[in-house]
Amino acid sequence: MAKLLPMQYAKILYQLINDTPVKNHTNAYKAFINLLYKDQMINTVDYIIKEYEVYEKQQKGIVTLTITTAQTVSATLIKNITKEFGKDVELTTNIDESLIGGVRVQHNNTILDASIKTQLNQLKRELT
After folding, report:
1. Are 61 and 88 within 8 A, CB to CB?
2. Rounded CA gap, 13 and 10, in Å?
3. Does residue 73 contact residue 114 with C-beta atoms inside 8 Å?
4. For residues 70-104, b (16+ Cβ closer than 10 Å) or e, as one string?
5. How far is the C-alpha of 66 from the C-alpha of 64, rounded, in Å?
């Protein structure tokens, strides 16, 4: 039998916790740990936890965004970007001077890159 991926274990844990009364959570955790041990996946528990957190946010309708710019941007720009993704946005902002200008927005596995660095790289590829 093929092993499950960390995301699949995360979904199992999420369902297990949500389908179990709070007073029985300890037993649910023990059963889950036993499953990981049986499947020889105990060493991936850190990955499973990360995937669990992502999945839980998705289930709650929380959108995670990472906005990277070359310099500090105004609160208005951040507000305009985040409102396009809904009400419940968990935001991380980064400064990366190598972008030169513009903005890069990461939402889950999708990157919207409107940075000057990327535009210059594209132009370079087209000219060569």
Report:
1. yes
2. 5
3. no
4. beeeeeeebeebbeeeeeebeeeeeeeeebeeebb
5. 7
**Model pTM?**
0.73
75: three-class secondary structure by DSSP: helix
Cα–Cα distance measured from residue 113 to residue 21, given in angstroms and rounded to the nearest whole number? 44
Beta bridge partners of 64: 90
First to last CA, the chain: 49
* Region 57-84 average pLDDT: 92
Say whether pLDDT at 2 is over 70.
Answer: no
Residue type at 66?
T
> With contact defined as beta carbons under 8 Å apart, do 60 and 35 qualify?
no
Q: Each residue of 12-66: pLDDT tens digit?
A: 999 999 999 999 999 999 999 999 999 999 999 999 999 999 999 999 999 999 9
